[in-house]
Protein backbone atom coordinates (compact mmCIF):
# COMPACT_ATOMS: atom_id res chain seq x y z
CA UNK A 1 0.00 0.00 0.00
CA UNK A 2 2.68 2.45 0.95
CA UNK A 3 4.43 1.42 -2.23
CA UNK A 4 1.55 2.90 -4.16
CA UNK A 5 2.04 6.14 -2.25
CA UNK A 6 5.73 6.13 -3.12
CA UNK A 7 5.46 4.92 -6.67
CA UNK A 8 8.05 6.73 -8.77
CA UNK A 9 8.87 9.13 -5.93
CA UNK A 10 12.28 9.64 -4.37
CA UNK A 11 11.26 11.88 -1.49
CA UNK A 12 8.71 10.94 1.15
CA UNK A 13 7.79 13.49 3.79
CA UNK A 14 6.03 12.23 6.90
CA UNK A 15 4.11 15.17 8.34
CA UNK A 16 1.53 15.44 11.06
CA UNK A 17 0.89 16.81 14.49
CA UNK A 18 2.87 16.07 17.63
CA UNK A 19 3.20 12.54 18.94
CA UNK A 20 1.13 10.78 16.28
CA UNK A 21 3.97 8.53 15.14
CA UNK A 22 5.82 10.46 12.43
CA UNK A 23 9.25 9.28 13.48
CA UNK A 24 8.06 5.71 13.88
CA UNK A 25 6.33 5.74 10.49
CA UNK A 26 9.30 7.29 8.72
CA UNK A 27 11.65 4.68 10.17
CA UNK A 28 9.27 1.81 9.36
CA UNK A 29 8.85 2.99 5.77
CA UNK A 30 12.63 3.24 5.45
CA UNK A 31 13.21 -0.20 6.87
CA UNK A 32 10.49 -1.76 4.71
CA UNK A 33 11.77 -0.19 1.52
CA UNK A 34 15.32 -1.27 2.35
CA UNK A 35 14.00 -4.79 2.87
CA UNK A 36 12.67 -4.51 -0.70
CA UNK A 37 16.12 -3.84 -2.04
CA UNK A 38 16.16 -0.04 -2.10
CA UNK A 39 18.88 2.22 -0.91
CA UNK A 40 17.07 4.43 1.59
CA UNK A 41 18.02 7.27 3.89
CA UNK A 42 15.76 8.22 6.76
CA UNK A 43 16.21 11.71 8.17
CA UNK A 44 14.92 11.63 11.71
CA UNK A 45 14.36 14.48 14.10
CA UNK A 46 14.70 13.92 17.81
CA UNK A 47 13.99 10.20 17.77
CA UNK A 48 13.25 8.68 21.14
CA UNK A 49 16.44 7.54 22.79
CA UNK A 50 15.87 3.82 22.34
CA UNK A 51 14.86 4.11 18.72
CA UNK A 52 17.92 6.27 18.10
CA UNK A 53 20.07 3.55 19.64
CA UNK A 54 18.40 0.91 17.50
CA UNK A 55 19.19 2.95 14.41
CA UNK A 56 22.76 3.50 15.54
CA UNK A 57 22.11 7.21 16.03
CA UNK A 58 23.75 7.65 19.37
CA UNK A 59 25.00 11.12 18.61
CA UNK A 60 23.81 14.05 16.61
CA UNK A 61 25.60 14.69 13.42
CA UNK A 62 24.65 15.44 9.90
CA UNK A 63 26.25 12.31 8.53
CA UNK A 64 24.16 9.36 7.43
CA UNK A 65 25.02 6.02 9.02
CA UNK A 66 24.35 2.59 7.65
CA UNK A 67 21.93 0.73 9.90
CA UNK A 68 22.74 -2.87 10.59
CA UNK A 69 19.30 -4.10 9.56
CA UNK A 70 20.21 -7.18 7.57
CA UNK A 71 18.20 -5.75 4.68
CA UNK A 72 18.35 -6.74 1.06
CA UNK A 73 18.97 -3.08 0.21
CA UNK A 74 20.48 -0.46 2.50
CA UNK A 75 18.98 1.58 5.29
CA UNK A 76 20.86 4.73 6.20
CA UNK A 77 19.78 6.96 9.02
CA UNK A 78 20.72 10.36 10.22
CA UNK A 79 19.38 12.65 12.81
CA UNK A 80 19.32 16.29 12.00
CA UNK A 81 21.41 18.80 13.76
CA UNK A 82 19.79 22.10 12.84
CA UNK A 83 22.67 24.22 14.04
CA UNK A 84 25.23 22.22 12.08
CA UNK A 85 23.12 22.43 8.92
CA UNK A 86 22.78 26.19 9.32
CA UNK A 87 26.56 26.47 9.67
CA UNK A 88 27.06 24.41 6.54
CA UNK A 89 24.73 26.76 4.69
CA UNK A 90 26.74 29.75 5.78
CA UNK A 91 29.90 28.01 4.61
CA UNK A 92 28.26 27.39 1.27
CA UNK A 93 26.97 30.89 0.67
CA UNK A 94 29.70 33.00 2.21
CA UNK A 95 31.56 34.89 -0.52
CA UNK A 96 34.87 34.47 1.25
CA UNK A 97 36.48 32.94 4.31
CA UNK A 98 36.48 36.21 6.23
CA UNK A 99 32.72 36.65 5.88
CA UNK A 100 32.17 33.03 6.80
CA UNK A 101 34.20 33.33 9.96
CA UNK A 102 32.62 36.68 10.82
CA UNK A 103 29.15 35.13 10.65
CA UNK A 104 29.94 31.82 12.31
CA UNK A 105 31.80 33.49 15.13
CA UNK A 106 29.16 36.12 15.69
CA UNK A 107 27.22 35.81 18.89
CA UNK A 108 23.99 36.99 17.35
CA UNK A 109 24.32 34.39 14.64
CA UNK A 110 25.03 31.70 17.19
CA UNK A 111 21.89 32.57 19.10
CA UNK A 112 19.84 32.99 15.98
CA UNK A 113 20.88 29.74 14.38
CA UNK A 114 19.99 27.90 17.54
CA UNK A 115 16.81 29.66 18.38
CA UNK A 116 15.25 31.19 15.30
CA UNK A 117 11.64 30.06 15.03
CA UNK A 118 11.28 27.52 12.30
CA UNK A 119 14.98 27.02 11.90
CA UNK A 120 14.64 23.34 12.62
CA UNK A 121 11.93 22.98 10.01
CA UNK A 122 13.93 24.92 7.52
CA UNK A 123 17.10 23.03 8.21
CA UNK A 124 15.32 19.72 7.78
CA UNK A 125 14.34 20.84 4.30
CA UNK A 126 17.85 22.02 3.60
CA UNK A 127 19.37 18.69 4.49
CA UNK A 128 16.78 16.93 2.41
CA UNK A 129 17.54 19.11 -0.55
CA UNK A 130 21.22 18.49 -0.11
CA UNK A 131 20.88 14.70 -0.10
CA UNK A 132 18.47 14.81 -3.01
CA UNK A 133 20.86 16.95 -4.99
CA UNK A 134 23.81 14.66 -4.30
CA UNK A 135 21.82 11.65 -5.45
CA UNK A 136 22.97 8.26 -4.26
CA UNK A 137 19.70 7.17 -2.64
CA UNK A 138 16.63 5.61 -4.21
CA UNK A 139 14.44 7.09 -1.52
CA UNK A 140 14.74 9.78 1.13
CA UNK A 141 12.25 9.60 3.98
CA UNK A 142 11.95 12.77 5.98
CA UNK A 143 10.57 12.79 9.48
CA UNK A 144 9.34 16.23 10.51
CA UNK A 145 9.79 18.09 13.77
CA UNK A 146 7.24 18.04 16.55
CA UNK A 147 5.93 21.45 15.68
CA UNK A 148 3.04 22.96 17.55
CA UNK A 149 1.46 23.10 14.18
CA UNK A 150 2.62 20.80 11.43
CA UNK A 151 2.08 23.72 9.12
CA UNK A 152 5.03 25.70 10.39
CA UNK A 153 7.02 23.21 8.50
CA UNK A 154 5.51 23.97 5.11
CA UNK A 155 5.97 27.66 5.65
CA UNK A 156 9.62 27.50 6.61
CA UNK A 157 11.23 28.15 3.20
CA UNK A 158 8.76 30.91 2.40
CA UNK A 159 9.27 32.47 5.82
CA UNK A 160 12.98 32.69 5.28
CA UNK A 161 12.52 34.17 1.82
CA UNK A 162 10.02 36.66 3.14
CA UNK A 163 12.41 37.68 5.87
CA UNK A 164 15.23 38.17 3.38
CA UNK A 165 12.94 40.20 1.15
CA UNK A 166 11.56 42.22 3.99
CA UNK A 167 12.19 45.88 4.44
CA UNK A 168 13.56 45.25 7.89
CA UNK A 169 16.19 42.98 6.52
CA UNK A 170 17.16 45.44 3.78
CA UNK A 171 17.42 48.24 6.24
CA UNK A 172 19.43 46.09 8.59
CA UNK A 173 21.84 44.97 5.93
CA UNK A 174 22.20 48.30 4.16
CA UNK A 175 25.84 49.33 4.32
CA UNK A 176 25.25 52.36 6.48
CA UNK A 177 25.81 53.08 10.08
CA UNK A 178 23.60 50.37 11.34
CA UNK A 179 23.04 51.54 14.88
CA UNK A 180 21.76 54.89 13.73
CA UNK A 181 19.39 53.33 11.29
CA UNK A 182 17.94 50.78 13.58
CA UNK A 183 17.54 52.63 16.79
CA UNK A 184 17.83 56.27 15.92
CA UNK A 185 20.14 58.36 17.97
CA UNK A 186 18.31 57.94 21.27
CA UNK A 187 17.91 54.17 20.99
CA UNK A 188 21.52 53.83 19.99
CA UNK A 189 22.63 55.79 22.99
CA UNK A 190 20.45 53.79 25.35
CA UNK A 191 21.92 50.63 23.92
CA UNK A 192 25.47 51.87 24.27
CA UNK A 193 24.77 52.64 27.90
CA UNK A 194 23.39 49.16 28.29
CA UNK A 195 26.44 47.74 26.60
CA UNK A 196 28.73 49.67 28.89
CA UNK A 197 26.81 48.50 31.92
CA UNK A 198 26.63 44.86 30.91
CA UNK A 199 29.83 44.54 28.97
CA UNK A 200 27.92 42.92 26.10
CA UNK A 201 28.81 44.32 22.70
CA UNK A 202 25.31 43.89 21.44
CA UNK A 203 25.10 46.72 18.98
CA UNK A 204 28.36 46.01 17.29
CA UNK A 205 27.61 42.30 17.12
CA UNK A 206 24.26 43.00 15.54
CA UNK A 207 25.71 45.43 13.10
CA UNK A 208 28.50 43.08 12.07
CA UNK A 209 26.13 40.22 11.77
CA UNK A 210 23.67 41.88 9.48
CA UNK A 211 26.35 43.38 7.31
CA UNK A 212 28.04 40.04 6.67
CA UNK A 213 24.80 38.11 6.49
CA UNK A 214 23.46 40.56 3.94
CA UNK A 215 26.08 39.52 1.41
CA UNK A 216 24.70 35.98 1.53
CA UNK A 217 20.99 36.65 1.35
CA UNK A 218 20.73 36.03 -2.38
CA UNK A 219 22.21 32.56 -2.01
CA UNK A 220 19.80 31.75 0.79
CA UNK A 221 16.86 32.95 -1.23
CA UNK A 222 17.77 30.89 -4.28
CA UNK A 223 18.16 27.89 -2.05
CA UNK A 224 14.79 28.41 -0.37
CA UNK A 225 13.17 28.62 -3.81
CA UNK A 226 14.88 25.40 -4.88
CA UNK A 227 13.62 23.65 -1.75
CA UNK A 228 10.13 24.87 -2.53
CA UNK A 229 10.36 23.49 -6.06
CA UNK A 230 11.57 20.13 -4.77
CA UNK A 231 8.61 19.92 -2.38
CA UNK A 232 6.12 20.76 -5.10
CA UNK A 233 7.70 18.53 -7.72
CA UNK A 234 7.06 15.05 -9.07
CA UNK A 235 9.80 13.52 -6.95
CA UNK A 236 7.99 14.16 -3.70
CA UNK A 237 5.11 12.53 -1.88
CA UNK A 238 3.64 13.87 1.35
CA UNK A 239 2.38 11.25 3.75
CA UNK A 240 0.08 12.69 6.38
CA UNK A 241 0.45 10.77 9.59
CA UNK A 242 -2.35 11.04 12.10
CA UNK A 243 -3.75 9.29 15.11
CA UNK A 244 -7.49 8.77 15.48
CA UNK A 245 -7.66 11.77 17.79
CA UNK A 246 -9.89 14.68 16.97
CA UNK A 247 -7.16 17.35 17.20
CA UNK A 248 -4.70 15.33 15.14
CA UNK A 249 -7.29 14.63 12.47
CA UNK A 250 -8.32 18.28 12.32
CA UNK A 251 -4.73 19.27 11.80
CA UNK A 252 -4.28 16.62 9.12
CA UNK A 253 -7.34 17.98 7.32
CA UNK A 254 -5.97 21.48 7.47
CA UNK A 255 -2.62 20.24 6.22
CA UNK A 256 -4.31 18.33 3.42
CA UNK A 257 -5.97 21.54 2.23
CA UNK A 258 -2.76 23.49 2.49
CA UNK A 259 -0.95 20.94 0.35
CA UNK A 260 -3.46 21.51 -2.42
CA UNK A 261 -3.22 25.26 -2.13
CA UNK A 262 0.55 25.09 -2.28
CA UNK A 263 0.44 22.66 -5.20
CA UNK A 264 2.33 20.05 -3.21
CA UNK A 265 1.81 16.36 -3.89
CA UNK A 266 -0.39 14.51 -1.42
CA UNK A 267 0.48 10.81 -1.34
CA UNK A 268 -1.90 9.45 1.26
CA UNK A 269 -2.66 9.11 4.96
CA UNK A 270 -1.17 6.83 7.56
CA UNK A 271 -3.67 6.51 10.40
CA UNK A 272 -1.59 5.21 13.28
CA UNK A 273 -2.64 3.63 16.56
CA UNK A 274 -6.07 2.74 15.30
CA UNK A 275 -8.24 0.31 17.22
CA UNK A 276 -9.35 -2.05 14.55
CA UNK A 277 -11.18 -5.21 15.20
CA UNK A 278 -12.04 -7.71 12.51
CA UNK A 279 -15.78 -7.69 11.82
CA UNK A 280 -15.94 -11.45 12.24
CA UNK A 281 -14.34 -11.39 15.70
CA UNK A 282 -16.69 -13.05 18.13
CA UNK A 283 -16.63 -14.46 21.62
CA UNK A 284 -19.36 -16.91 20.78
CA UNK A 285 -18.59 -20.51 21.59
CA UNK A 286 -15.85 -19.65 24.08
CA UNK A 287 -17.82 -20.70 27.13
CA UNK A 288 -16.99 -24.33 26.40
CA UNK A 289 -13.18 -24.10 26.21
CA UNK A 290 -12.76 -21.10 28.60
CA UNK A 291 -15.53 -21.51 31.12
CA UNK A 292 -18.43 -19.11 31.66
CA UNK A 293 -16.61 -16.49 33.73
CA UNK A 294 -13.62 -16.06 31.38
CA UNK A 295 -15.82 -16.14 28.30
CA UNK A 296 -17.92 -13.32 29.77
CA UNK A 297 -14.81 -11.22 30.29
CA UNK A 298 -13.59 -11.85 26.74
CA UNK A 299 -17.02 -10.86 25.53
CA UNK A 300 -16.92 -7.60 27.52
CA UNK A 301 -13.44 -6.81 26.29
CA UNK A 302 -14.50 -7.43 22.73
CA UNK A 303 -17.36 -5.01 23.28
CA UNK A 304 -14.92 -2.31 24.48
CA UNK A 305 -12.71 -2.90 21.48
CA UNK A 306 -15.70 -2.60 19.16
CA UNK A 307 -16.68 0.72 20.70
CA UNK A 308 -13.12 2.08 20.40
CA UNK A 309 -12.91 0.83 16.89
CA UNK A 310 -16.19 2.49 15.98
CA UNK A 311 -15.11 5.76 17.61
CA UNK A 312 -11.83 5.74 15.64
CA UNK A 313 -13.71 5.05 12.45
CA UNK A 314 -15.95 8.06 13.04
CA UNK A 315 -13.00 10.31 13.97
CA UNK A 316 -11.19 9.40 10.78
CA UNK A 317 -14.22 9.72 8.52
CA UNK A 318 -13.81 13.45 7.81
CA UNK A 319 -10.24 12.91 6.68
CA UNK A 320 -11.25 9.90 4.64
CA UNK A 321 -13.48 12.14 2.53
CA UNK A 322 -10.45 14.17 1.46
CA UNK A 323 -8.35 11.32 0.13
CA UNK A 324 -9.01 12.06 -3.56
CA UNK A 325 -8.40 8.45 -4.40
CA UNK A 326 -5.20 8.20 -2.36
CA UNK A 327 -5.02 5.46 0.27
CA UNK A 328 -5.55 5.67 4.00
CA UNK A 329 -3.27 3.08 5.54
CA UNK A 330 -4.17 1.96 9.03
CA UNK A 331 -1.69 0.83 11.64
CA UNK A 332 -3.18 -0.65 14.78
CA UNK A 333 -2.39 0.43 18.29
CA UNK A 334 0.24 -2.10 19.32
CA UNK A 335 0.44 -3.37 22.85
CA UNK A 336 3.97 -2.06 23.26
CA UNK A 337 6.15 0.89 22.26
CA UNK A 338 8.00 0.78 18.99
CA UNK A 339 11.59 1.35 19.90
CA UNK A 340 13.69 -1.15 18.00
CA UNK A 341 14.03 -2.80 14.62
CA UNK A 342 11.71 -5.65 15.57
CA UNK A 343 9.11 -3.12 16.62
CA UNK A 344 9.43 -1.39 13.26
CA UNK A 345 9.12 -4.72 11.48
CA UNK A 346 5.86 -5.30 13.32
CA UNK A 347 4.45 -2.27 11.49
CA UNK A 348 5.63 -3.45 8.11
CA UNK A 349 2.73 -5.71 7.12
CA UNK A 350 0.31 -2.89 7.88
CA UNK A 351 2.23 -0.33 5.87
CA UNK A 352 3.09 -2.58 2.97
CA UNK A 353 0.01 -4.74 2.84
CA UNK A 354 -0.37 -8.38 3.70
CA UNK A 355 -1.57 -7.64 7.24
CA UNK A 356 -4.22 -9.96 8.57
N1 LIG B 1 1.18 1.83 16.35
C1 LIG B 1 1.74 2.09 17.56
N2 LIG B 1 1.43 1.34 18.62
C2 LIG B 1 1.97 1.59 19.84
N3 LIG B 1 2.85 2.57 20.07
C3 LIG B 1 3.21 3.37 19.05
C4 LIG B 1 2.67 3.17 17.74
N4 LIG B 1 3.22 4.11 16.92
C5 LIG B 1 4.02 4.85 17.69
N5 LIG B 1 4.05 4.43 18.95
C6 LIG B 1 4.78 5.01 20.09
O1 LIG B 1 4.28 6.32 20.28
C7 LIG B 1 5.30 7.20 20.67
C8 LIG B 1 5.34 8.41 19.75
O2 LIG B 1 5.73 8.00 18.45
P1 LIG B 1 6.69 8.89 17.56
O3 LIG B 1 7.88 9.32 18.33
O4 LIG B 1 6.93 8.18 16.28
O5 LIG B 1 5.74 10.15 17.30
P2 LIG B 1 6.10 11.52 16.60
O6 LIG B 1 4.93 11.92 15.79
O7 LIG B 1 7.40 11.39 15.88
O8 LIG B 1 6.26 12.45 17.86
P3 LIG B 1 6.89 13.94 17.90
O9 LIG B 1 5.86 14.83 17.30
O10 LIG B 1 7.12 14.17 19.35
O11 LIG B 1 8.15 13.87 17.09
C9 LIG B 1 6.58 6.39 20.67
O12 LIG B 1 6.87 6.00 21.97
C10 LIG B 1 6.25 5.18 19.81
O13 LIG B 1 6.98 4.04 20.20
MG1 LIG C 1 9.16 12.53 16.09
Total of DSSP H or I helical runs spanning 4+ residues = 16
Oligomer: single chain
N→C terminal distance: 14 Å
Cα Rg? 25 Å
- Tally the beta strands: 8
Strand content: 5-15%
- Our count of domains comes out at 1
Give helix % range: 55-70%
List the topology elements.
Layout: H1 2-6, E1 11-15, H2 22-35, E2 39-44, H3 49-54, E3 61-66, E4 74-79, H4 82-93, H5 97-104, H6 107-115, H7 119-134, E5 139-143, H8 151-165, H9 167-173, H10 178-198, H11 202-214, H12 217-232, E6 236-242, H13 246-261, E7 266-274, H14 287-290, H15 292-320, E8 328-332, H16 341-352
Parallel strand pairs: 1-5, 1-6, 2-4, 2-5, 6-7, 7-8
Antiparallel strand pairs: 3-4
Helix pairs in contact: 2-16, 4-5, 4-7, 5-11, 7-8, 8-12, 9-11, 10-11, 13-15
Detailed description of the structure:
The protein has 356 residues and is an alpha/beta fold. It contains 16 helices and eight strands. The protein has a single domain (2-163, 227-352), classed as Rossmann fold. The protein has an eight-stranded mixed sheet with strand order 3-4-2-5-1-6-7-8, sandwiched between helices. A hairpin with a 7-residue loop joins strand 3 (61-66) and strand 4. Helix 2 (22-35) packs across helix 16 and helix 4 (82-93) packs across helix 7. The longest helix has 29 residues, at 292-320. The chain is elongated and about 85 Å long. The relative contact order is 0.16. The chain binds adenosine-5'-triphosphate and magnesium ion. Magnesium ion is lined by residues 22-23, 45-46, 143, 146.
Amino acid sequence: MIERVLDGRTVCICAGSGGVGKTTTAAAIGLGMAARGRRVAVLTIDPARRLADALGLTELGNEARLVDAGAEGELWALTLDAKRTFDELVELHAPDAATRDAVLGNRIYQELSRAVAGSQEYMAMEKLYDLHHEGGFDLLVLDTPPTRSALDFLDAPADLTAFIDSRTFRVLTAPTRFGMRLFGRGGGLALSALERATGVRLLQDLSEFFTSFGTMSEGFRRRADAVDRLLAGDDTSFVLVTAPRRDAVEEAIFFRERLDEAGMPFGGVVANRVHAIPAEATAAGLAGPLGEELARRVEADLGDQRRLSERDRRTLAALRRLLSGRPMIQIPELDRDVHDLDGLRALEPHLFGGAA
